[in-house]
Amino acid sequence: MTEHFVRGQGPGLLLAHGAGGGVTANFGPLLDDLSRTHTVVGADYPAAGGSLDELADGLVKTAVDAGVEKFTVLGYSLGTAVAVRVATRHPDRVTGLILTAGFARPDARMELALNVWAHLLEGDRTLLAKFLMLTAVSEPFLASLSPDQLAGAVAGLASSVPEGTAKQVELVRNVDTRAELASIAVPALVIATTLDALVPPRHSRELADGIPGAELVEIASGHGITDEAPDAWLTAIRKGLR
């Protein structure tokens, strides 16, 4: 793992971010509030990449090294697959799962988007940012932006693509946690982003259907819930915290 984050006191909460994201990028607006009641631990994935097993084990090591022996895992996007793998590889450490905008495996629609994403990473970052805004941001949120705000959002996204994103996108293409879901024995909350064109909400429903006793909550947001609906997301997360 690269730079890690430990903040707060209380029960453990381990963060698993999405592809092309990071702890601050994906969870930033929530961190102060969550750290009021929990010891929040997170780490950006290594630029060199790694398998799902390696990312899961690396996050667990980060938590244990910080003195956090047990934790709820909050996963976002690719991080939901990492969270599932943490739960199945380290069941004695996981007290609960909160899975947001996630998936058990990519389907044909996601595969097409991932293929375009991977190719755009090799070239014009502004074009990449426009593609991600088009797919990861909901139509209502886009419509609320002024031309200057939209241009600023595109420029900011184009300038903040983390090193190692290409390896994370490739990892997404190979995720398949379907066979693991039935073995999860901790409380699970699945949060579906209902306006999500990048990872449509039926993927969250598949996760919820596959995990015994899982609860499903729906939030009207695109994939970029951090920017679109942080308050609703925080409210839902608090419902699933242990």
UniProtKB/TrEMBL annotation:
GO molecular-function term, one example from the UniProt record: hydrolase activity
Keywords: Hydrolase
Native source species: Amycolatopsis silviterrae
InterPro entries: AB_hydrolase, AB_hydrolase_1, AB_hydrolase_fold
AB hydrolase-1 domain residues: 13-229
Protein name stated in the entry: Alpha/beta fold hydrolase
Lineage: Bacteria, Bacillati, Actinomycetota, Actinomycetes, Pseudonocardiales
Pfam families: Abhydrolase_1
UniProt keyword Isomerase present: no
